[in-house]
Amino acid sequence: MILPVYVYGNPVLRKEAEEIGPDYENFAQLLEDMWETMYKSDGVGLAAPQVGLAIRLFVIDGNALSEDFPELKDLKRCFINAKIIERSEYKVSESEGCLSLPGIREDVSRPDRIRIQYQDENFLSHDEVLTGYVARIVQHEYDHIEGKLFIDYLSPLRKRLIKGKLNAITVGKVNVDYKIKLPK
């Protein structure tokens, strides 16, 4: 089932998400719904807070960007209870967008290398070092489970310049091809 994507202004996007276990109710269905929602929305990642759930779960599939970033080919993963434990000091700036911030793209500086611990869809533990664009996508989605958005990394001036777009999102003045959930 395709779920609505919660857009800017919804409080769930600013909550630090809670860990879950293998007994999380209807987990398999939720995971299936998140994949379906992400693909329908043309996203490369989707975090549970973006579908209204403050839990530490996100999915990524980089295949759509693999022509420009070959390291993303066949990159399809589920991250549960993720924790970034190391970040490189070296940062790279790239343009980012977000399903919860439709119509906004900005350059964001992020560490080029991270070490992350997480569980997969079978709740098996992993400890990995990720680099390049893979690390960027994971950090973007990880921010969602920490209650952060990519616009939090912008300068005060850039934030002022996009304020009108952010206000438009909160009242539904956006043109998207996917279901969205406006703030109340």
Summed up:
23% of the residues lie in helices and 27% in strands. The chain is α+β, with helices and mostly antiparallel strands. The chain has a single domain, classed as Peptide deformylase (Peptide Deformylase, Alpha-Beta Complex), CATH 3.90.45.
If you had to describe this structure to a student in words, what would you say it looks like?
The chain is globular and about 45 Å long. A five-stranded antiparallel sheet has the order 2-3-4-7-8, with helices on both faces. Strands 1-9 form a two-stranded parallel ribbon. The chain has a two-stranded antiparallel ribbon with strand order 5-6. The longest helix has 15 residues. The protein has one domain: Peptide deformylase (Peptide Deformylase, Alpha-Beta Complex), CATH 3.90.45.10. It starts with a strand and ends with a strand. By secondary structure, the protein is an alpha+beta fold. The protein contains three helices and nine strands, in the order E-H-E-E-E-E-E-E-E-H-H-E. The model has no long low-confidence stretch (mean pLDDT 97).
* Secondary-structure arrangement, i.e. CATH architecture: Alpha-Beta Complex
Number of strands: 9
Q: Oligomeric form of this entry?
A: single chain
State the low-pLDDT regions, or none. Answer: none
- Domains (count): 1
Terminal Cα separation, in Å? 23 Å
Question: What would you report as the Rg, rounded to the nearest angstrom?
Answer: 16 Å
Q: Characterize the overall form.
A: globular
CATH class: Alpha Beta
CATH superfamily: Peptide deformylase
Please report which band the strand proportion falls in: under 5%, 5-15%, 15-25%, 25-35%, 35-45% or over 45%. 25-35%
Helix and strand string, N-terminal first?
Answer: EHEEEEEEEHHE
